[in-house]
Amino acid sequence: MLKEIHTILSLTLGVPPKPDDEITWEYKDKFGNFHSIKTTPKKFYKKHLGFDAENYFSLINDPRNTPGLYTVDKLGNIEGGKPIEYVNTSSTNLKKAAINAIKNNEPVFFGSDVGKFEDTKIGLLDVDSWDYKLGFGTAINLTKKQRLASGSSAMTHAMVLTGVHIVDGKPVRWKVENSWGEYGEHKGYFVMSDKWFDEYVFQVVTNETYIEDKTLVEYWKNKDYKVLPYYDPMGALA
């Protein structure tokens, strides 16, 4: 199947270059100026990307499981690549790492259940957007743990945290850059309430410099994995 997929991609997009093949990278900067660079994929990664993926791993908030390092069976998407690494911890620790990165002018990849309490038109993620108790006489009372256990919630979409509003030392709302391009008056950006973060954010990608509880770093470095089954909701996104 991989061979067939490679053939389809090569026919439609062109044969992908080998790591040391010369390529021409053309782009426009934020001022609209055109640039052209002759390089190789490996040199482009090292010189222009400025991102060392080896130093990054995921923090997750999975209340079904105890703190520690997790991976998901068959989730790796690169043959021979490093496994998916999830350090399970509290939602508070996810927020602290994200805030520290944002303060350092670094956006934060995160995974969430985007369809819950989400208004695409106005760009809002907030658990108080709809009052089910008022409308139907009943509230949605499942906890985050219960939603994961019952299959009613999972990581379904990746976006980027680009800002946070802090009041008296605590986050109140977050600025989210969606990956569906510019659309609507909000130009593809969402406002996410901190309550929504608690309920529907499951993952943030970070490195050890942004983590305040160094026990979490030790979990990651010790490589003592607990393996979740391939159908686990933590494996829905990667």
Automatic annotation (TrEMBL):
Domain of life where this protein originates: Eukaryota
The protein, known as: Unnamed protein product
Organism: Ambrosiozyma monospora (Yeast)
